[in-house]
Design a protein that fits this description.
By secondary structure, the chain is of the alpha+beta class. It contains four helices and five strands; from the N terminus they run αβαββαββα. The chain has a three-stranded antiparallel beta sheet with strand order 2-3-5, with no helix packed on it. A two-stranded antiparallel sheet has the order 1-4. It is rod-shaped and about 105 Å long.
């Protein structure tokens, strides 16, 4: 009986120091992981808006329709899964010279409305993929928040939008 008590005390004594060792070991291990990220890894944050994110080449941000090259074929609107592209056009008067897009497609219809509700857009890219004249593209502009949902409707025949395109192209 006396031997059993002594062994029990010995185990407790050993366990005490083992606990201290494990506490230091796990603490050191955790701090090692922390310092590894502090010293060995570059920061993943940037000081936006002073520093802008560099996007991948194929990033799909704000849509832009270079309306002068649009032939009103409506393929973009038909392919859109959320129906957020609104197009209207009228036939060109008989006898009027038919202009061409930069890739040589005849512009037979006169575009009278080209609006995209970017609040509905899911940036799937289908509309840009089917566009035969490649006038509809995703820009790299991601700074177009608005105070109202109606502000997210973009009229691509509006001069302000064209000015916005010039700003993006220059950057
Ligand atoms: S990116 Fe997709 S959701 Fe947005 S307008 Fe184009 S087809 Fe529609
Ligand atoms: S697919 Fe291209 S050319 Fe056809 S209506 Fe849409 S933007 Fe215009």
């Amino acid at each position: 009986m006396a031997t059993t008590i002594s062994e029990s005390n010995k185990l407790t004594f050993t366990g005490y120091f083992r606990n201290i060792y494990e506490a230091f070991y796990t603490c050191g291990k955790g701090m090692w992981i922390t310092f590894k990220y502090v010293w060995a890894h570059k920061p993943v944050t940037i000081e936006y808006p002073e520093v802008k994110e560099v996007l991948p080449e194929k990033a799909r941000m704000r849509l832009f329709n270079d309306a002068e090259n649009c032939i009103s074929c409506t393929q973009c609107a038909l392919s859109c899964p959320v129906d957020c592209i609104y197009i209207a056009s009228k036939p060109r008067p008989k006898g009027e010279e038919v202009p061409k897009t930069t890739n040589g497609s005849p512009i037979r219809q006169i575009l009278t409305q080209y609006t995209i509700d970017t609040a509905l857009c899911c940036y799937c890219g289908l509309c840009t993929t089917v566009c035969p004249t490649e006038c509809l593209t995703h820009s790299h502009d991601y700074e177009y928040s608005q105070y109202s949902l109606s502000g997210m409707k973009v009229d691509y025949l509006n001069d302000d939008v064209r000015a916005w395109r010039e700003r993006i192209v220059k950057e």
